[in-house]
Design brief:
Layout: H1 3-11, E1 27-30, H2 39-55, E2 60-63
Amino acid sequence: MDLEAVRAALRAHHPTAVLELPERQWLDAKGAPYELRNPHAVEELAKDVAAFANGGGGGWSQMAPP
């Protein structure tokens, strides 16, 4: 599945279509949401967003449900 297929699945309200996809330059999978009360987690989120912004191909961060 490529980035456009992932975007189409999400626009069609089928988020389960992207579960268990391997990480790629444009897909970052997380096991849990960022805990924004934790300064280290905020730093990790900033790093992930910066990596997507500088990657040139767009991106998506996927988090598993709690």
